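Open question from group meeting: does this chain pack into something compact, or does most of it stay loose? Before anyone orders reagents, we agreed to write out a predicted structure and look at it together. Recording both the input and the output here so the notebook holds the full record.
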Amino acid sequence: MKPIECVLAVETSCDDTSVAIVKDSGYVVCQVSAHQDLAHAPYGGIVPEIASRNHSVALLPLITHVLEKAQLNWSQINGLAVTNRPGLIGSLIVGIMTIKTISQAYDIPLIGVNHLEGHLLAPFLKDDQYAPPQVFNYPYLALAVSGGHTSLYWVAEFGQYTVVGTTKDDAAGEAFDKFAKMAGLGYPGGAQVDRFAQNGNTAAYDFPRSLAIEDNLMMSFSGLKSSAQRMLEKMGPEEVLKNRGDLCASFQEAIVDILVKKMIRASERFNCKKIVLTGGVSANTRLRAQFQAVALKHNFQVVIPPLRYCTDNAAMIAYTGLLKLQRGEKSDLTLGPSSQSFENDFKFDLQ
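Structure tokens returned:
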């Protein structure tokens, strides 16, 4: 078997179709993605059936485009990676079946990758505009925050991940999206809250910070969402429209406060000053700014991948798959999709 030095990967876990080619050092040769915001906007959220159908339309043209853009052919690709968990089953199936077919056609080994593990390793990606700090390496703490997941991880080394804190109910991204829908801000919700919050007063409204002062690493956002719903219902549409900047800024601040406080507490528990912020919600400008402020105050080394590697992307899947293939792991044609992580993907130490 050829040495695994160049991997093509596909990411179709939710509504973004992404294809990337990554080389041995984590260098992203090329990445292209197709987004479905306009398709889902009329429904105020992701419709799984629409997502999977759009993947089936977009994926093969994107693969062809990536190879052409990278000026590579299949003989130069010696590994394939695909997200097979966790995610929307219909969306995952499109990516998995496509990669299986390519693997059979060109006799290229393939590997299924956990989408969340990809987010944890995204800081190691590099391209012509970005590279992680040279001194950055394992172990580190990572906060992965998205629409479906909000968890703190102790990343001891590649393949050794322990969930040390997580949300008891809603993910932070889900809370953002639900608030945006209740406030009539449009879709995608999280981005709209961020946009309207830019000129708002973060202290205009007092939203609850559930579990913020508890001496643990657990989080909760359902109470915050319920509190916001009650407030919006009392205000009425006209008052909400008039004060949406302050509402968004105050709601956003409550979520950011919780995430920042839990990360600081985790750093104290593990005596670790290497911090990673990743996942789709790490695109939030206030969250990024507050993490950078904390880094200065506490002398943390904070690594936040650029936006193209924070949201759902194939580059992080390619890099994770490359490392797995290099150490001898391989999937066969029985590889299937799963809406959840596998039991042995992560350890748990929730105190």
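Observations to bring back to the group:
The radius of gyration is 20 Å.
The first strand starts at residue 6 and ends at 11.
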